[in-house]
Design a protein that fits this description.
With 642 residues, the protein is α+β, with helices and mostly antiparallel strands. The protein has 18 helices and ten strands. The strands form two sheets. Strands 2, 3, 4, 5, 6 and 7 form a six-stranded antiparallel beta sheet that branches. A hairpin with a 2-residue loop joins strand 2 (516-519) and strand 3 (522-533).
Length: 642
């Protein structure tokens, strides 16, 4: 009965989405904005029904109901409850239901809480959101039913992919999906504004919280996913330029550009066309990522290998939504009035430069991701890996960081080059001093890109604090603190990336218990190998006594074997110090009773993820600051009227 109730909830939600779209069409066609009052409860009910359907699917997984095909294919009764719970979205159908549920709840929130938009724009926005939802409802109900039954039910399930049996599964995918859905709402706002010719500051202020929220969640999701892959896959790296990793990076790049554009439109009434176009591009990238992950054309530990028919369905949705939005953009953008003018030397110009550089990087990543797939379709296999992305995108990313540092030091609308130069003296001096120091201590050990990366990171870190100079910190607006912390986080992450690239030491050995291994100032004594058993796995564990001129600490890398499905995984052991991480992986046994061990010392690598957290924290402070300021303005206005 639970599965049937979930399916009924989905069908009812799809019916309400169709009704919502019809009401929007009728209201816009006949100029009946009063129909917005009827659309609001329809959207809210849709959100409730989709949330109910997803809650019912979670219940089926927690109960290990093997009569449901999805549970039988992706769960096992012996799994810990956390992986039963997170396993709900650790598969194609469940993750798509999560997507639809979040989209339904978001649409309900737009209907319930949005009051700043013009009524006709609000109605068009809800209609666009209903149109997007309808496509995904059809995809679920006709192509990817999460509640399909299997008869007779198996005695037990096939189990979840062991690589996904990690607490990261409970955090990483949901944050990404929340970010993607936030971009779908921004897309709906853009379509609504184009349909009603209401591309103005009020529209931007209404859309900005959704863009900021999506950007924060994408930042957290990518940061968490990077660290999860870093310690789970046992290869010692934090970014592989895997196509599915790129599929999450591309929407973030577009959302970063959109965030800056919508902020300019909301506060300075500029960059109107940029804002609309970037809203379309950001959602397009999330749809491209969805297609890559679910089409079956990729072989990746991150991808859901499903049949190509489902990929064709998503490709059709992408063509309809994005093609339609681009056609609407071309049709209506001529009627959008030019925003407020600004001089060549101004903060707006620097933000346009930022957007151009982000767009170039996005194009590089998109080409590098899709080119091998296109050549393979014509019978030629081409590999595009880290060297392409590092050499092409790396210098542009460093240029972007410099532009990001200069932007907050430049005034809005109009400024003078000598004045900007004076404000850059301290950051530039700090970067130059850092360059001299790095060259003195690491010459010959550091490549050009990491060298410039560290230099730029220090200069940007100093420049990011500049908006706080000569301010009373307690009276500094919260959104200014958010900008400072987010930009500082970018500098911190860049420093971690450069240090990891320049100074990582790797050692591969075959050792017996009792042997001592020395690398990068560390001494690792191989104590013993011992067997272990977990809830649904067995393992061999190496006990390593690790010392660097002080008290020894134990590290315990494992090689685990899962029976359902049969898989062997490497569980890396990590020792985090203030100046980096020691990373140890246990390999296979070789002749003579020796065991393969791979050891990395990675100086300051944790700055990569610490910087990611700072970026997200800065975004959260900016979101709170802007919303609090908007609430105070409304409250004062109501008080003045009273």
């Amino acid at each position: 009965m639970i599965a049937e109730a979930g399916l009924i909830a989905l069908w009812l939600a799809a019916s309400l989405a169709l009704l919502q779209l019809f009401l929007a069409f009728a209201g816009l066609k006949g100029g009946k904005v009063e129909l917005l009052a009827a659309m609001r409860p329809v959207a809210v009910a849709q959100g409730v029904l989709t949330a109910l359907a997803f809650a019912l699917l979670i219940t089926l997984f927690l109960r290990s109901d093997m009569s449901v095909l999805l549970v039988a294919m992706n769960s096992h009764s012996a799994k810990p409850w956390l992986y039963k719970f997170a396993g709900t979205w650790g598969n194609h159908e469940g993750s798509m239901l999560l997507w639809v549920a979040v989209m339904g709840v978001a649409g309900g929130a737009v209907a319930l809480f949005e009051r700043a938009l013009r009524r006709d724009t609000h109605m068009a926005t809800l209609g666009a959101q209903a149109a997007i939802s309808l496509g995904f409802y059809a995809f679920l109900l006709f192509s990817s039913n999460p509640f399909a039954r299997v008869d007779p039910p198996p005695a037990d399930g096939q189990g979840l992919n062991p690589l996904l049996q990690d607490p990261g599964l409970a955090f990483h995918p949901p944050t990404l999906y929340l970010g993607y859905v936030g971009l779908s709402v921004a897309f709906s706002f853009a379509v609504g504004a184009l349909l009603t010719r209401a591309v103005d500051a009020a529209f931007a202020r209404a859309m900005r919280p959704w863009v900021l929220g999506a950007w924060i969640l994408l930042t957290l999701g990518i940061t968490a996913g990077s660290y999860w892959a870093y310690y789970e896959l046992g290869w010692g790296g934090w970014w592989f330029w895997d196509p599915v990793e790129n599929a999450s990076l591309m929407p973030w790049l577009a959302a970063t550009a959109l965030l800056h554009s919508v902020t300019v439109l909301a506060t300075r009434d500029g960059l109107r066309a940029w804002t609309i176009m970037l809203a379309v591009v950001a959602f397009s990238m999330s749809m491209v990522g969805t297609f890559l992950v679910r089409s079956g054309i990729l072989t990746s530990v991150h991808a859901f290998a499903v049949d190509p028919e489902r990929g064709s369905f998503i490709l059709a949705l992408l063509a309809i939504y994005i093609g339609g939005a681009l056609a609407l953009f071309g049709w209506r953008i001529g009627s959008v009035r030019e925003g407020a003018p600004f001089e060549l030397v101004s903060r707006e110009t620097l933000l346009v430069v930022n957007n151009l550089l982000l767009s170039v990087i996005l194009g590089i990543v998109l080409i590098g991701t899709l080119y091998p797939l296109m050549t393979e379709a014509f019978g030629h296999k081409v590999s595009v890996g880290a060297p392409y992305f590092d050499r092409i995108a790396g210098p542009i990313a460093l240029t972007l960081m410099i532009a990001m540092a200069v932007g907050p030091l430049t005034r809005w609308r109009r400024d003078r080059l000598p004045a900007v130069g004076r404000r850059l003296v301290i950051p530039a001096t700090g970067g130059a001093m850092a360059a001299v120091f790095i060259a003195a201590v690491a010459w010959g050990r550091i490549g050009p890109l990491p060298f410039f990366g560290l230099t730029v990171a220090i200069g940007v870190g100093i420049a990011s604090l500049a908006p706080l100079w000569k301010r009373k910190l307690r009276r500094t607006p919260l959104f200014t603190w958010g900008m400072v912390i987010a930009h500082l986080g970018c500098a911190v992450s860049l420093a971690g990336m450069a240090c990891d690239s320049a100074f990582t030491v790797e050692k591969l050995v075959a050792a017996r218990p009792g042997d001592a291994i020395r690398t990068a100032g560390w001494t690792l004594r191989f104590v013993k190998i011992m067997p272990l058993a977990g809830d649904n796995w067995t393992a061999l564990q190496a006990d390593m006594a690790v010392d660097r001129g002080g008290r020894a600490v134990m590290m315990r890398p494992q090689s685990r074997f899962f029976t359902s499905p049969p898989t062997t995984t490497s569980e890396a052991a990590l020792l985090t110090q203030w100046d980096g991480q020691l990373y140890v992986v246990l390999g296979e046994e070789v002749e003579g009773g020796r065991w393969q061990l791979r050891i990395w010392w990675k100086p300051f690598v944790t700055l990569i993820w610490f910087g990611g957290v700072l970026i997200a924290l800065g975004g959260a402070l900016a979101l709170i600051g802007h919303e609090r300021r908007g609430w105070l303005v409304k409250w004062r206005g109501r008080r003045a009227v009273a």
